[in-house]
Amino acid sequence: MTTRTLITGGLVITAADETHADVLIEDGRIAALAAPGTQEWSASADRVLDATGKYVIPGGVDVHTHMELPFGGTFASDTFETGTKAAAWGGTTTIVDFAVQTKGQSLRAGLDAWYAKADGNCAIDYGFHMILSDVNDRTLKEMDLLVEEGLTSFKLFTAYPGVFFSDDGQILRAMQRASSNGGMIMMHAENGLAIDVLVEQALQRGETDPRYHGEVRKALLEAEATHRVIKLAQVAGAPVYVVHVSAQEAVAELARARDEGLPVFGETCPQYLFLSTDNLAEPDFEGAKYVCSTPLRPREHQAALWRGLRTNDLQVVSTDHCPFCFVGQKELGRGDFSKIPNGLPGVENRMDLLHQAVLDGHISRRRWIEIACATPARMFGLYGKKGTIAPGADADVVIYDPAAEQVMSAETHHMNVDYSAYEGKRVTGRVESVLSRGELVIDQREFVGRAGHGAYLARGTSQYLG
Ligand code: URP
Ligand code: ZN
Ligand code: ZN
Ligand code: ZN
């Protein structure tokens, strides 16, 4: 039996258009859009959702999360269940999380471990990228198999020596492989070997507070690594996607490469757009709440990030959601900033913060949807199914109230973490209802979804536009 849901009266916003339209959903997919008030539809619908005065937007696609990530002797505090529920509360209906290859083990073993963590626990759909910690002949062959199965993107690191770090030869080999199998290489670009020297020197000088995390992880060392991975990708004839870009000097490297016509892409995150080294310098160890890598930068860098998002030198805003509680987790680094687990919570906040950026004049409404829904879907082989509202697409739809006011706070958020990086921040705009494949997950500010509704997404290869 066909189930039909009709969303009436809203302003439908996609990356391409803004139109007042009714949206018809049949069996979990968008069936059609039509002029508001189309009579024969409302008569035959099983359920009508009134979106008058609201936006009707595609569910957010967050292509950078770390649920339950093991890091620095502890684990990111959101499970796939708590993290995907929080994502839904924030208007995100797809995440792509990072499965981790443990050094010395196969990609398959890492992937199986991540399937086990996520399976049956997610409230929204999810896919995986694979972190390559160990590039060798065997793992390069495994890459081909994973691409065929729909795991089509791989993250490598020039940072974290001894943990996730790959040397330039390993990065080049992975890029060459991606160039032949259609995979996308994602790069964490910071010169980790140089940073480790600066960390050691800072600690010897007694510089142990969280703010030194930002000082040793220099913008120049982000720019250098960004430049290097772009050149390695050029040599390999492969596209490259640089994750969590924070330094204006790194944006300049991406812009220059793109001006040369290279398939080079960049992602930034809300924390780099809204927070700064001022937060890292908060007294009484509060700065630890803002320790992530790449680090927060001085406020001056924000203008370059917003400009990059407008000029398309940066294409995606994801969260790099990697929460650690202040009590008991961030506190592991009291007296030594290098022991603070790296990462910030944010999966619930992204759509709202970017809507505020629309109101603040940084980006247009359609660009909001483009950088948060459409392009991330396209970049990682999900477009058509995710990231837009068009016939045939999955009915992942958010009814968004652009006028509702909210104050972000750990008291009211749904992420499993004891602080908010945006505590007390006032924003205008709030999710009202969320559908995932036609099923209500949030119904007028009430969670009605369930762990286990979310399905694993086998993805195609990247559908990037130059
Ligand atoms: O600080 C961060 N970003 N933690 C998560 C791991 C990573 O490098 O993305
Ligand atoms: Zn209007
Ligand atoms: Zn990273
Ligand atoms: Zn990350």
TrEMBL record:
Matches recorded under Pfam families: Amidohydro_1 (PF01979)
Superkingdom to which the source organism belongs: Bacteria
CDD domains assigned: D-HYD
Cofactor: Zn(2+)
Alphabetical keyword list: Hydrolase, Metal-binding
Enzyme Commission numbers on file: 3.5.2.2
Ranges where the Amidohydrolase-related domain occurs: 55-441
GO molecular function annotations of the record: dihydropyrimidinase activity
Matches recorded under Gene3D superfamilies: Metal-dependent hydrolases (3.20.20.140), Urease, subunit C, domain 1 (2.30.40.10)
SUPFAM superfamilies given in the database record: Composite domain of metallo-dependent hydrolases, Metallo-dependent hydrolases
InterPro entries for the chain: Amidohydro-rel (IPR006680), Hydantoinase/dihydroPyrase (IPR011778), Metal-dep_hydrolase_composite (IPR011059), Metal_Hydrolase (IPR032466), Metallo-dep_Hydrolases_sf (IPR050378)
Alphabetized NCBIfam families for the sequence: D-hydantoinase
Family: Belongs to the metallo-dependent hydrolases superfamily. Hydantoinase/dihydropyrimidinase family.
The name this protein goes by in its record: Dihydropyrimidinase
Taxonomic lineage of the native organism: Bacteria, Bacillati, Actinomycetota, Actinomycetes, Kitasatosporales
